[in-house]
TrEMBL record:
<dbReference type="Pfam" id="PF02210">
    <property type="entry name" value="Laminin_G_2"/>
</dbReference>
<dbReference type="InterPro" id="IPR001791">
    <property type="entry name" value="Laminin_G"/>
</dbReference>
<dbReference type="InterPro" id="IPR050372">
    <property type="entry name" value="Neurexin-related_CASP"/>
</dbReference>
<protein>
    <submittedName>
        <fullName>CNTP2 protein</fullName>
    </submittedName>
</protein>
<feature type="domain" description="Laminin G">
    <location>
        <begin position="1"/>
        <end position="164"/>
    </location>
</feature>
<dbReference type="InterPro" id="IPR013320">
    <property type="entry name" value="ConA-like_dom_sf"/>
</dbReference>
């Protein structure tokens, strides 16, 4: 396809911070890639560069954050020539692409949820999308519906299921006075804890535990937006270890 205008829209939800949402490229060096990087949305677009290097068309725009929260997020990309509107969850960003070309030449296949291995360094370093998508619409074509009815030709549908599996994790919400106390493990010389958390508060206690036999304690907290670990040991001279990240 060689297009002057494009409208691409879809909804997604995922708990992964990396993954290609869709990708298309052409023989002239044109490409469009929408992907998650560090839980942010990144759109890479090139309407063409020339071999002399005087016209450099690569354009990259980043929007959003914390998009790996397993909630539905909606994306609309509207392109007219070099003018782009990128809308994420009703927040619109307008920009113009670099270069001098207006048409997007995509004469290879367009892929959703990943990109084909082309041998280029860019293709093997990118992860496939892992999560759910719905309402995929590409220039007026309802891709989700066509894929479900097997009306996309030619198409390669790899390991898709037309349902959205919910994760088995159970979140716990804490207010200013709540806490969760669990039994310790006596006669164990290993202390191990892992968890995911999300908060708007810059300060707060995350974990506290006393060691047995009055040997000390461990405390994990948020202090001015940084996570700190404090280990107090009563039997050694250097009796406090502080780690901040």
């Amino acid at each position: 396809m060689k297009t002057l205008k494009d409208v691409i829209s879809l909804k997604f939800k995922t708990s992964e911070s990396e993954g290609v949402i869709f990708h298309g490229e052409g023989q002239q060096g044109d490409y469009i890639t929408l992907e998650l990087k560090k839980a942010k949305l990144v759109l890479n677009l090139n309407l063409g560069s020339n071999q002399l290097g005087s016209i450099y068309g690569h354009t990259s725009v980043t929007t959003g954050s914390l998009l790996d929260d397993h909630h539905w997020h909606s994306i609309i990309i509207e392109r007219h020539g070099r003018n782009i509107n990128l809308t994420l969850d009703r927040h619109m960003q307008h920009f113009r692409t670099n270069g001098e070309f207006d048409y997007l030449d995509l004469d290879y296949e367009i892929t959703f949820g990943g990109m084909p291995f082309s041998g280029k360094p860019s293709s093997n370093s990118r992860k496939n999308f892992k999560g759910c998508m719905e309402s995929i619409n590409y220039n007026g074509n309802n891709i989700t519906d066509l894929a479900k009815r097997k009306k996309l030709e030619p198409s390669n549908v790899g390991n898709l299921s037309f349902s959205c599996v919910e994760p088995h994790t159970v979140p716990v919400f804490f207010n200013a006075t709540s806490y969760l106390e669990v039994p310790g493990r006596p006669s164990q010389d290993l202390f191990s804890v892992s968890f995911l958390f999300r908060t708007w508060n810059p300060n707060g206690l995350l974990v506290f535990s006393n060691f047995a036999d009055d040997l000390g304690n461990v405390e994990i907290d948020i202090n001015e937006g940084k996570v700190s670990v404090h280990i107090n040991v009563t039997l050694v001279k250097k009796n406090r270890i502080d780690i901040s990240s």
